[in-house]
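Hi Y.,

Following your request, here is the sequence exactly as I used it, all 120 residues.
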Amino acid sequence: MAGPIPVEIKLHRTSRVLEVVFDDDARFELSCELLRVYSPSAEVRGHGPGQEVLQTGKENVLITAVEPVGNYAVRLVFDDGHDSGIYAWDYLYHLGRHRERFWRDYVDALARAGHARAGS
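Below is the corresponding structure, written out as tokens. Let me know if you'd prefer a different format.
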């Protein structure tokens, strides 16, 4: 059984948010920073468990393009040159549904690594 499918994807450049509305009426606002640091690319996730690479200095990253990939995903292009993440619908939904936990985990990982977000 297929999961929810986006019916609207809108990039809000000024607020640095990607708004995604799904066919089950779920609506998520995902920050560019969150999407960048949780990119599904091998560059960020590695090639297996424990190989994730903590992304730092992404507070002001912007999405410059949202490109469809078939009927199942989008490729997000960021202004820092990152463009290899393919965000499947189920992954976007999962990020949206659990964004507070993902955000907390990211901020905690930065702190453990001795990094602080600019402005925090």
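The longest strand covers residues 6-12.

Thanks again,
Q.
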